[in-house]
Amino acid sequence: MQCQQTESRGCPDVNFATAPKVTLLDGFGVQLNGRASEPSLGELPHGVQRLVAHICLTGRPVRPAIAGHLWPEVPEELAHGRLRSTLWRAKKAAPGLIEVSGDAISLAADVRVDVREFSDWARRALDRRTGVEEMAVPDVWLRGELLPGWYDDWVLPERERLRQLRAYTLEALAGKLAAVGRCGEALQAAYGAVRAEPLRESAYRVVMRVHVTEGNAAEALRTYLAFREILEVELGVAPSEQMAQLVQEIQRRHCGVAG
Predict the structure, then answer these.
(1) Contacts of 61-66 spanning 24+ positions with Cβ under 8 A
(2) 85-108 average pLDDT score
(3) What is the distance, to the nearest Å, from the Cα of residue 25 to the centroid of all Cα atoms in its chain?
(4) Which CATH superfamily is domain 113-254 in?
(5) Pick from 104, 126, 155, 185: CA 20 to 30 A from residue 135's CA?
(6) Residue 93: beta bridge partners?
(7) Residue 255 has pLDDT above 90, yes or no
(8) Kind of pairing, strands 112-113 and 98-101?
(9) Local confidence band at 142 (pLDDT 50, 70, 90 cut-offs)
(10) Where is average pLDDT lowest: 3-7, 148-152, 162-166, 183-187?
(11) Which pLDDT does position 88 carry in this prediction?
(12) In the chain, which residues fall in CATH 1.10.10.10?
């Protein structure tokens, strides 16, 4: 990410090599001082993990909101007691990671969070003013769902939001890259969108257009046939009329098929 490599674009004065980091994509993890966590940190109590993850996803929540989300099945007084206990354990296991100010609970100011960095990257990629020379497709953004195996009510909507954001951003970035002739990177982004949402037709259309841009009409049509088969097997439906029109356009312009 460009923001992590230089301060010349207005990045905060943070030493990214040593800043603590919380990862939520592809599983929960914590790093302190830029090093892989000590064994005990990599296996924080699940209650502490849930607290840290909730703060990462909600920003600076207040105690009543946290207690209600993390322990909705118990009386309010007991939920607040569990929160106090979890904060104490977090302070012991990962000192300096969480800050408490009155009722507000937040991460320390220098803590990085991969989900927030991903959202920042997506926002820049989707900004029409951002040139493709400023963008890259870091491998980390192409894989890993949010907190796999977690089924809390406050995780599921955010997981879906991030999955859709990843697919949409990669489609848009693929279009930008293809427009300036960077077709290899464009395909990487487009297939990243396909992996994020394997039944997402718009992602396959982007793949097809990139293939056409680099002069591979046959590859574009093979992509269509593969997608049509997937839809038939998985859902028992056919591609949309929009996809059919794209296929007809490719055949007419590149394969000598009359419209």
Answers:
(1) 61/104, 61/105, 62/103, 62/104, 62/105, 63/103, 63/105, 64/103, 66/105
(2) 94
(3) 7
(4) Tetratricopeptide repeat domain (1.25.40.10)
(5) 155
(6) none
(7) no
(8) unpaired
(9) low
(10) 3-7
(11) 96
(12) 20-109
Per-residue pLDDT at 236: 96
**For the chain, where do the domains classified as CATH 1.25.40.10 start and end?**
113-254
Residues 6-59 pLDDT 10s: 333 334 444 555 788 999 999 999 988 755 444 344 578 999 999 999 999 998
Phi, psi of 198 (to 5 degrees): -60, -20
Instruction: Please give the CATH number for the structural domain made up of 20-109.
Output: 1.10.10.10
Instruction: Using the structure block, give the residue that is written with the tokens 């929160």.
Output: 83
Q: What's the distance, CA 181 to chain centroid? A: 26
